[in-house]
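Extended Data, panel c. Modelled sequence:
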Amino acid sequence: MWLDGLYMAEPFYAEYIRTFEPDASCEDILTQFRLTDTHLKDAKTHLLYHGWDESRTCFWADKETGRSLSFWGRSMGWYACALVDVLDYLNDGGAREELIRMVRDLAEAVTNVQSVKTSVWYQVCDKENQYGNYPEASCSCMFTYFLAKAVRKGYIGRKYFQNAKRAFYGLIREFIEVDEQAFLNLKGTVYVSGLGGDPFRDGSYEYYISEPKQVNNLLGIGAFLMACSELEYAAEDENIQF
């Protein structure tokens, strides 16, 4: 199981059910989040590992836990977006409370590793000061979106909007640049990170920081637009001070 895979399926799956099969169960969707919560979440920090192998046979998997080795920012960003987007379509009270509990756990976890210096998040989230690590645009935009939307929807306390607000200004400082033609560009998005293959993608810290960064990578631009849109919604909410 890859953490980022939850965004690739579950929000669409939930919207499809509510649109075309409104009486159908969302249990399959909940199962994916429960498996993630059980097998990928670190008990101490509540950060989530990038991958889990039930068989413990993949070379990147810990032989005891089956987990990969690191907390990759963008995989947690995808997961964060999936949580708050799926909740738009879940009507069952018990299921909603279960996912909202996951939202609250994640909000606390990601704000604990939000950089005091830059106000954004790093490629390997829990190792800001380790050699070679760097502020990463796509996960920073996704966490900004997640926090702002979760506050607006009432899933987490309003104190977290200050984290989203700090992060937004951090995005502008760290990642937005103006070129010689006066065009805006988004820098600092890691091109790709995965698990598996031979001999690469072993899930180590050294692997994640070795992947190249790009300017105007669409994964970063899309997440930036999502963050800006959600903050604009929040700015229009009379109960939220932007």
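Helices lie at 5-20, 27-39, 73-86, 93-112, 137-152, 159-175, 205-210, 218-236. This feature is highlighted in the accompanying rendering.
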